Amino acid sequence: MSMRALSTISLIVLMSCTSTEERLVADGVVPLTGPEVSALVSGNTLSTKGDGWTHDTFIDASGRLTGRAVWNGGSETADGVWEVTEDGLYCRDWENDWAGGGYGCSRVYPAGDGGHWFIYANGSRGEVTEIYVTVSEGNTQSL
User: Fold this and answer.
1) Between 20 and 30 A from 80 (CA), which of 32, 68, 91, 143?
2) Model confidence, pTM
Protein backbone atom coordinates (compact mmCIF):
# COMPACT_ATOMS: atom_id res chain seq x y z
CA MET A 1 0.00 0.00 0.00
CA SER A 2 1.36 3.42 -0.92
CA MET A 3 2.15 6.14 1.60
CA ARG A 4 -0.53 8.33 -0.01
CA ALA A 5 -3.17 5.62 0.47
CA LEU A 6 -2.13 5.16 4.11
CA SER A 7 -2.34 8.92 4.69
CA THR A 8 -5.81 9.05 3.15
CA ILE A 9 -7.02 6.13 5.29
CA SER A 10 -5.52 7.73 8.42
CA LEU A 11 -7.31 11.01 7.66
CA ILE A 12 -10.65 9.24 7.16
CA VAL A 13 -10.23 7.33 10.45
CA LEU A 14 -9.24 10.53 12.28
CA MET A 15 -12.23 12.44 10.88
CA SER A 16 -14.61 9.67 11.94
CA CYS A 17 -13.29 9.92 15.52
CA THR A 18 -13.69 13.69 15.68
CA SER A 19 -16.71 14.98 17.57
CA THR A 20 -19.03 17.65 16.26
CA GLU A 21 -17.67 20.06 18.86
CA GLU A 22 -14.07 19.39 17.80
CA ARG A 23 -15.01 20.05 14.17
CA LEU A 24 -16.85 23.27 15.08
CA VAL A 25 -13.91 24.55 17.13
CA ALA A 26 -11.46 23.61 14.34
CA ASP A 27 -13.62 25.68 11.96
CA GLY A 28 -13.39 28.69 14.30
CA VAL A 29 -16.99 28.45 15.55
CA VAL A 30 -17.38 29.64 19.14
CA PRO A 31 -20.22 28.77 21.52
CA LEU A 32 -22.91 31.37 22.15
CA THR A 33 -22.58 33.60 25.20
CA GLY A 34 -25.08 33.47 28.05
CA PRO A 35 -27.10 36.45 26.77
CA GLU A 36 -27.08 34.97 23.24
CA VAL A 37 -28.34 31.60 24.52
CA SER A 38 -31.08 33.28 26.56
CA ALA A 39 -32.20 35.35 23.57
CA LEU A 40 -32.19 32.25 21.36
CA VAL A 41 -34.30 29.97 23.56
CA SER A 42 -36.48 32.15 25.79
CA GLY A 43 -40.08 32.17 24.58
CA ASN A 44 -39.28 29.86 21.67
CA THR A 45 -39.68 26.23 20.58
CA LEU A 46 -36.68 23.94 20.18
CA SER A 47 -37.20 21.05 17.76
CA THR A 48 -35.15 18.02 16.84
CA LYS A 49 -35.83 14.80 15.02
CA GLY A 50 -34.33 11.43 14.35
CA ASP A 51 -35.19 8.17 12.65
CA GLY A 52 -38.84 7.66 13.58
CA TRP A 53 -39.07 10.29 16.33
CA THR A 54 -39.45 14.03 16.93
CA HIS A 55 -39.00 16.15 20.04
CA ASP A 56 -40.26 19.69 20.62
CA THR A 57 -39.72 21.81 23.72
CA PHE A 58 -41.28 25.18 24.50
CA ILE A 59 -38.91 27.28 26.62
CA ASP A 60 -41.05 29.68 28.64
CA ALA A 61 -39.45 32.95 29.71
CA SER A 62 -40.55 32.15 33.30
CA GLY A 63 -37.91 29.41 33.57
CA ARG A 64 -40.34 26.54 32.91
CA LEU A 65 -40.22 24.24 29.91
CA THR A 66 -42.63 21.75 28.36
CA GLY A 67 -41.63 19.03 25.93
CA ARG A 68 -43.29 16.44 23.76
CA ALA A 69 -41.61 13.40 22.25
CA VAL A 70 -43.37 11.50 19.47
CA TRP A 71 -42.12 8.21 18.07
CA ASN A 72 -43.44 5.34 16.01
CA GLY A 73 -46.38 4.15 18.08
CA GLY A 74 -46.36 6.61 20.95
CA SER A 75 -45.81 9.99 22.52
CA GLU A 76 -44.99 11.49 25.90
CA THR A 77 -44.99 14.98 27.40
CA ALA A 78 -42.98 16.32 30.29
CA ASP A 79 -42.33 19.54 32.18
CA GLY A 80 -39.22 20.92 33.78
CA VAL A 81 -37.12 24.00 34.44
CA TRP A 82 -34.31 25.69 32.55
CA GLU A 83 -31.65 28.34 33.04
CA VAL A 84 -28.56 29.74 31.39
CA THR A 85 -25.43 29.80 33.55
CA GLU A 86 -23.00 32.72 33.82
CA ASP A 87 -20.59 30.88 31.53
CA GLY A 88 -23.25 30.48 28.82
CA LEU A 89 -24.43 26.91 29.33
CA TYR A 90 -28.06 26.04 28.61
CA CYS A 91 -29.22 23.82 31.49
CA ARG A 92 -32.47 21.90 31.96
CA ASP A 93 -33.96 19.59 34.53
CA TRP A 94 -36.91 17.47 33.40
CA GLU A 95 -39.42 16.32 36.02
CA ASN A 96 -39.31 12.77 34.62
CA ASP A 97 -36.48 10.49 33.45
CA TRP A 98 -35.74 12.30 30.17
CA ALA A 99 -32.06 13.01 29.57
CA GLY A 100 -31.05 10.81 32.46
CA GLY A 101 -33.60 12.26 34.89
CA GLY A 102 -31.46 15.05 36.30
CA TYR A 103 -29.98 18.50 35.85
CA GLY A 104 -27.76 18.71 32.77
CA CYS A 105 -26.10 21.43 30.71
CA SER A 106 -24.99 21.98 27.12
CA ARG A 107 -22.86 24.44 25.21
CA VAL A 108 -24.72 25.92 22.24
CA TYR A 109 -22.98 26.44 18.90
CA PRO A 110 -24.44 28.01 15.76
CA ALA A 111 -24.51 25.43 12.97
CA GLY A 112 -24.18 27.99 10.17
CA ASP A 113 -27.44 26.96 8.51
CA GLY A 114 -29.89 28.54 10.97
CA GLY A 115 -29.82 25.56 13.34
CA HIS A 116 -27.74 25.05 16.47
CA TRP A 117 -25.73 22.25 18.04
CA PHE A 118 -26.40 21.57 21.72
CA ILE A 119 -23.28 19.77 22.99
CA TYR A 120 -23.36 18.05 26.40
CA ALA A 121 -21.12 19.83 28.92
CA ASN A 122 -21.95 18.43 32.37
CA GLY A 123 -24.59 16.86 34.61
CA SER A 124 -27.24 14.41 33.50
CA ARG A 125 -27.35 13.70 29.77
CA GLY A 126 -29.07 10.42 29.07
CA GLU A 127 -27.91 8.75 25.86
CA VAL A 128 -27.33 11.89 23.79
CA THR A 129 -24.10 13.90 23.86
CA GLU A 130 -24.86 16.22 20.94
CA ILE A 131 -28.03 17.16 19.16
CA TYR A 132 -28.92 19.40 16.22
CA VAL A 133 -31.77 21.77 17.09
CA THR A 134 -33.92 24.17 15.09
CA VAL A 135 -35.51 27.10 16.88
CA SER A 136 -38.92 28.54 16.02
CA GLU A 137 -40.25 31.80 17.39
CA GLY A 138 -43.00 31.34 19.98
CA ASN A 139 -44.88 28.24 21.11
CA THR A 140 -45.29 26.75 17.64
CA GLN A 141 -46.43 23.32 18.89
CA SER A 142 -48.97 24.59 21.48
CA LEU A 143 -47.07 22.98 24.35
Assistant:
1) 32
2) 0.82
